[in-house]
Design a protein that fits this description.
The structure holds 2 protein chains of 2 kinds. By secondary structure, chain A is α/β, with parallel strands linked by helices. Chain A has 6 helices and 5 strands, in the order αβααββββααα. The mean pLDDT of chain A is 94. Chain B is of the alpha/beta class. Chain B has one domain: Rossmann fold (3-Layer(aba) Sandwich). Chain B is 41% helix and 23% strand. In chain B, helix 1 links the parallel strand 1 and strand 2. The chains are: A alpha/beta, B alpha/beta. At the A-B interface, helix 4 of A face helix 1 and helix 3 of B.
């Protein structure tokens, strides 16, 4: 049975938050995710170094997203963490690293077992390539609502 | 048979996303191919075997084979252009 994005969100976390900066968000998320057993204590440093070397901001048609992630050795539990930011924060662009963009939604992939999740990782792009989904994502108010929204989306994709 | 090297920071996340799309495009264009997925640091060791490099991040080094910026395959913006570029390189 293939792992789906909705399953990864169910095991993960969804935040509707305001952060002053990317670093503040990373520190806050790392602390919580470590306390809840998602990641190891090396996570924050790995994430920060990784983002500095290979930034993950992506310019999308509706609004910009970021995809921060680390190698599996820093992760303890497979999950997707989604952060819908009340006000956008700056990330460097993946394809033009000296350029900063304002990011509205962060998809943080926590993957411990890569081979098992290839399809899910690939499917994640289908979510943000869909303008309708991206618009609805901003009106979601809870993790349950997001899981339902993603499930609907997955059902549509399976049918098409 | 064409060999496409697909690279990102780790060789895992964004390169997986790009690989799926590239595979689809090359199948549609009837271009027989294999895909090597790797991290940016590993490109050097596969370069000799490849026909083209598709990457999700800005490449710093100089390579002996053509390169395509593949961010469009993930972001949607500029996807058509990247697709055209890739197919042109591989049809030569």
């Amino acid at each position: 049975m293939a792992v789906t994005i909705s399953k990864l969100i169910e095991t993960g976390k969804v935040y509707f938050q305001e952060y002053r900066s990317r670093d503040e968000m990373f520190a806050s998320l790392a602390e919580e995710l470590e306390a809840e057993g998602y990641v190891r204590n090396t996570f924050l440093q790995a994430l920060t170094e990784r983002e500095a070397k290979y930034p993950t901001g992506i310019v999308c048609s509706k609004y910009n997203i970021a995809l921060p992630h680390v190698d599996s050795e820093h992760v303890k539990k497979d999950a997707l963490v989604v952060v819908v930011l009340k006000s956008p924060i700056g990330f460097h662009r993946m394809d033009k690293i000296e350029e900063t963009i304002e990011v509205k939604v962060v998809f943080m992939l926590l993957i411990e077992e890569v081979s098992y999740h290839i399809q899910a990782i690939a499917n994640l792009t289908k979510l943000w390539l869909d303008d309708g989904f991206m618009e609805e994502l901003l009106s979601v108010r809870s993790k349950e609502e997001l899981v339902t929204l993603v499930k609907e989306h997955e059902k549509q994709q399976a049918a098409s | 048979m064409k060999t496409v090297i697909i690279a990102c920071g780790s060789g895992i996340a964004t390169s997986t996303m790009i690989s799926m799309k590239v595979d689809e495009i090359l199948n549609e264009n009837h271009i027989p191919h294999e895909i090597i997925q790797c991290s940016i640091n590993e490109i050097d060791s596969y370069e000799d075997r490849g026909d083209v490099i598709v990457s999700s991040t800005q490449l710093q080094g100089n390579y002996s084979i053509p390169t395509v910026m593949g961010i469009g395959f993930i972001s949607g913006t500029g996807a058509e252009e990247a697709e055209k570029q890739l197919v042109e390189i591989l049809k030569k």
